[in-house]
Amino acid sequence: MIKLNRKPKPKILIQNEKTWSSNLMAAIASHGGYSKIPKEKKEPLINHYKHKDIKSNLFESSRQKCAFCETKPGESGNIEVEHFAPKAIYPNLTFEWSNFLPCCRKCNGSKLDHDTVQEPIINPYNVDPEDFFDYQDIRITAKNNNAIGKLTIDTCGLNSVRLMEPRAKILISLNSYSQSLEDAITNYKNADTAAKKTIRKRKIAESLEIIEKFTQPTEVFSGYCKFYLKTCEPFNMAKKIIEE
Ligand SMILES: [Zn+2]
């Protein structure tokens, strides 16, 4: 999970949120509750939040990735607009821009109607997840055992096999790139002329560029990769050499 920055509210929402919301609230009042509105009546009342302009604006801010697990569900067509505070409990927030999160179907299904108002979990638009999560091998963990981090991991299923498998693959790649970096550093240190040193320093810079690509916000699991590199010795040594 990484920090996300919310884009300005889309025009379609500015123009219609009041009407959409009051129509929904009127139906709730006349049927005696959100869950009591018949499905065929409820769908057309709520599905405005799936408008293409809302989706594109929202998904762009997360680079088409799930806000919770950082997979790219867009590739398989499963990215959804999720209501952070569930609309079934807080229907007044059905068209609230700040309540929308881009989410994969798996995380959305796992979170379900978890009441984030009563039992808050991490919202990456509001806080920096880096302050709440660490990783241990291929598992995400709550930094210093913090309660909100733990609850987020459990609620969204962030240590399920579907996420640990790709993390394991990335870990193998990161390991092999860090090995290359280590070799490049050794070569650099063994260079016996200034010219060789310059060339070998460039090689280090090239290897760094490759490994740092994993941490770009556009990449899947970039939070995980960032954490790995923080404690990766060859990476930190290479950075120092480049800055010399
Ligand atoms: Zn997800």
Automatic annotation (TrEMBL):
GO molecular function, one term: endonuclease activity
Domain (HNH nuclease): residue spans on this chain: 53-109
Keywords per UniProt: Endonuclease, Hydrolase, Nuclease
Keyword DNA-binding found: no
UniProt key word NAD: no
Listed SMART domains: HNHc
CDD domains linked: HNHc (cd00085)
Protein name according to UniProt: HNH endonuclease
Native organism: Aeromonas cavernicola
